[in-house]
Design a protein that fits this description.
Elements: E1 2-7, H1 15-22, E2 28-31, E3 40-44, E4 47-51, E5 64-67, E6 72-73, H2 75-87, E7 94-98, E8 102-103, H3 106-119, H4 131-139, H5 152-174, H6 181-195, E9 199-200, H7 202-211, E10 216-223, H8 243-250, E11 257-265, E12 268-270, E13 279-280, H9 282-291, E14 307-309, E15 311-312, H10 313-323, E16 327-331, E17 341-350, E18 353-355, H11 361-366, E19 368-375, H12 392-405, E20 409-413, E21 421-423
Parallel strand pairs: 1-10, 1-11, 2-5, 2-10, 5-7, 6-8, 7-9, 11-16, 15-17, 16-20
Antiparallel strand pairs: 3-4, 12-14, 13-14, 17-18, 17-19, 20-21
This protein binds guanosine-5'-diphosphate (GDP).
Length: 424
């Protein structure tokens, strides 16, 4: 069976933890989109890890970790990540890389930096990992597929051709040093050596695995609200964050995705610019940020402080709907135990009218949160294993949100560890 683990919000919902947990019963974990721009934080018996490219199931001996064709593959970053986890005592994971995955090139990272510099105050708050230039090139059909590393003639010719166009922009728009095709070719030869042992025809591999009844997890990065089509465009990421894209980014039939586990955090956080209706500021935000996640809400890749807010029923209902949630995993609930009362955003007021439907960006910018305040439970709920053992106000919080979003919360996460989970 194929299951997807995806985010309902702006990312950082705790997908890594849920994937790591579900990977215990899985054979294969596939990353199907995104790149090394966002990270998953995982706490397990080997320690605490921030993964950027490796799937979150790579800590188990029995799983195969796959980089799907939809991923922006940064080969040196992938190899550094493998070295880092192995150095911390994790057995060498079984890794397969799609021959159709495209590679983040050193110039993608540079173009990302140069463009942010050029935009100055109007920048997108990119993590400067080269993701937007990478996907632009993929769709402009000047990207480099892993399979192309193995065709020297093609590679030589293409490197020259691509450098020509890149150098025009470098010279005239950014006024930066030009690319040297020979150096680039040499870099690609190194990438070839690094990646060769792992290259695989992933869609055939997965087709056979599905036929054999293997358990497969598709691991999403970021969340619905960062999807380029359905998110807060243009403050979005450059590849689809939706479970539906899992079929494309892994190369499997869409009808094989039977469960869509949509991870939804018990409060809101976001990185980068863009409308964030339930955002809070000042001391209130600082305290939630400090207590949030596991050791504070700071970016796994960049260390940037995350923007904080109350739970947003409008955004999360939309987020779950666009994912096609079959199950909601409601995470980081334990963090809210310090609050006397917990505000929840139940509607958006836009031009004097209240709506519960998530609008397009220009309207979203005008939205003001309609808040409802629920009583807190004022205790530590970590370690609790049964839903009935949660304090009454805590259960009421979960049930209120479940009703507002309209999708079943089947899992409640009450701590960062693998076993901190309550099934309903
Ligand atoms: P992802 O990108 O969706 O995987 O999310 P991140 O890894 O960026 O953020 C989730 C953070 O919350 C990580 O530091 C996790 O260890 C932590 N976390 C996940 N679930 C829980 C939970 O239920 N309680 C607490 N306290 N922390 C959690």
């Amino acid at each position: 069976m194929v299951k997807a683990v995806v985010g309902a919000n702006w990312g950082d919902e705790g997908k890594g933890k849920i994937t790591d947990m579900l990977a215990k019963e899985a054979d294969i974990i596939v990353r199907f989109q995104g790149g090394a721009n966002a990270g998953h934080t995982i706490v397990n018996n080997y320690g605490k890890f921030a993964l950027h490219t490796l799937p979150s199931g790579c800590f188990y001996g029995h799983t195969t970790s796959i980089i799907g064709n939809g991923v922006a593959l940064n080969i040196p970053v992938l190899f550094k990540e493998i070295q880092d986890i192995v150095a911390k005592g994790v057995p060498m994971p079984k890794i397969l890389v799609s021959d159709r995955a495209q590679m983040v090139m050193p110039y993608h990272v540079l173009f990302d930096q140069y463009e942010e510099e050029r935009l100055g105050g109007k920048s997108f708050g990119s993590t400067k990992s080269g993701i937007a230039p990478f996907y632009s090139d993929k769709y402009a059909k000047i990207g480099f597929q892993v399979s192309e590393l193995f065709d020297e003639e093609l590679l030589k010719e293409k490197v020259v051709r691509v450098c020509e166009t890149k150098n025009v922009t470098l010279e005239h728009l950014y006024h930066k040093p030009l690319l040297n095709p020979d150096e680039l070719l040499e870099t690609l030869h190194q990438y070839k050596e690094m990646v060769e042992p792992y290259v695989c025809d992933v869609s055939t591999y997965l087709w056979n695995a599905i036929k054999e009844g293997k358990e497969i997890l598709l691991e999403g990065q970021l969340g619905t609200l960062k999807d380029p089509d359905h998110g807060i465009y243009p403050m979005v990421t450059s590849s689809s964050t939706l479970a539906a894209y899992g079929a494309i980014g892994a190369g499997i039939p869409p009808y094989e995705i039977k469960k869509i586990i949509t991870v939804c955090k018990a409060y809101s956080s976001a990185v980068g610019a863009g409308a964030f209706v339930s955002e809070i500021f000042g001391d209130e935000a600082d305290e939630l940020r400090r207590r949030g996640g596991d050791g504070g809400e700071f970016g796994a890749t960049t260390g940037r402080p995350r923007r904080m807010g109350w739970f947003d029923c409008v955004a999360s209902k939309y987020g779950c709907r666009l994912q096609g949630a079959t199950d909601v995993a409601f995470t980081v609930l334990d963090v809210l135990g310090y609050l006397d009362e917990i505000p929840v955003c139940v509607g958006y007021e836009i031009d004097g009218e209240v709506t519960t439907e998530f609008p397009t960006t220009a309207k979203l910018e005008k939205a003001k949160p309609v808040l409802k305040t629920l009583p807190g439970w004022k205790c530590d709920i970590r370690g609790i294993k049964n839903y009935e053992d949660l304090p009454e106000n805590c259960r009421k919080y979960v049930e209120f949100i479940e009703e507002q979003i309209g999708f079943p919360i089947t899992m409640v996460s009450n701590g960062p560890g693998r076993d901190d989970i309550i099934y309903r």
